[in-house]
Amino acid sequence: MGLSSNHLLGLKGVPKEDIQLILDTATTFREVLERPIKKVPTLQGKTIVNLFYENSTRTRLSFELAQKRLSADTINFTKSGSSAAKGESFKDTVRNIEAMKVDMIVCRHESAGIPKYLTQISKAKIINAGDGRHEHPTQGLLDMYSIREKVGKLEGLNICIVGDISHSRVALSNIYGLQTMGANVSVCGPSTMIPWDMEKFGVKVYNNIDKAMAENDVLNVLRIQLERDAGVLIPSVREYHNYFGITQERIDKNNPNVLILHPGPINRGVEISSEVADGSSQIILNQVTNGVAIRMAVLYLLGTKSEE
């Protein structure tokens, strides 16, 4: 039994069985990462291109490491320093890359919908590594895996996504994936950072972080994306921290057992205090390690899948 699709473009509409398979497969690869020799020959002979039109550290390094752990041949493409910077169209860039006989493309792009467009102009299997404000499916999967690893389940958990919901592709992937797996999902943040029609996603909306913390098992705290003009939606980062920042004092007062996630990079002293970022309530570095295992699982399941 394999995945139902040849691509991973998002978690919206992905069957529960597919998500379960990815999470279970990641458990196997998580064990590989603990071995003295952290490499398996599973994708030997496969060529994978990391097509990154947007800056990234964690996601790009995580995918590259996952590919090398699976013994695939990896090509890294960034917009700066390429012919794209000279005016070459995206379509021509992709066709030139595909002429090199690549098997898979991992794409990160500032525009929503580009990974889906790739499936129309390329024969390679496509993995979305984040597209605009649309989705970031492997981040959603690694968040789910990290929660399940720590708590033991996803079904029935109350999970709140906190912060800049309107700019976040991580939020959408978490909402779709967690709901599919039976979790109760809510969001919390300033009203300026939460889309007015948020209820259409079937989530509860909080505007008070203390109430959200008290009523949820897990908080997935998002970064305030100042580079995407999120700063204009709040009076100041100091005021945001005062009203919505995750501090140890808030945890002790509202819910000492709450589990804190953060996709990174952290703005210390803004969405989360340094005390919490380094404390026992969070599993932020676990998420980074689990990200490699999840991406190994996705690459393996798609890379070994025969065309239908």
State the major sheet.
5 strands, parallel
Report the CATH superfamily of the largest domain.
Aspartate/ornithine carbamoyltransferase
Proportion of β residues? 5-15%
Task: Look up the CATH topology of the largest domain.
Answer: Rossmann fold
Provide mean pLDDT, rounded.
92
Distance between the termini: 13 Å
The CATH class label of the largest domain is Alpha Beta
How is this structure best described in words?
This protein has 308 residues and is α/β, with parallel strands linked by helices. The chain has two domains: 16-134 and 291-303, Rossmann fold, CATH 3.40.50.1370; 137-287, Rossmann fold (3-Layer(aba) Sandwich). The protein contains eleven helices and nine strands. A five-stranded parallel sheet has the order 7-6-5-8-9, sandwiched between helices. Helix 2 packs across helix 11. The radius of gyration is 19 Å and the shape is globular. The mean pLDDT is 92.
List keywords for this structure.
single chain; 308 residues; alpha/beta; Rossmann fold; 9 strands
Helix and strand layout, with pairings?
Layout: H1 16-32, E1 47-52, H2 58-69, E2 73-78, H3 90-98, E3 104-109, H4 114-121, E4 125-131, H5 137-151, E5 158-162, H6 169-180, E6 184-188, E7 204-206, H7 209-215, E8 218-221, H8 237-244, H9 248-254, E9 259-261, H10 274-277, H11 284-303
Parallel strand pairs: 1-2, 1-3, 3-4, 5-6, 5-8, 6-7, 8-9
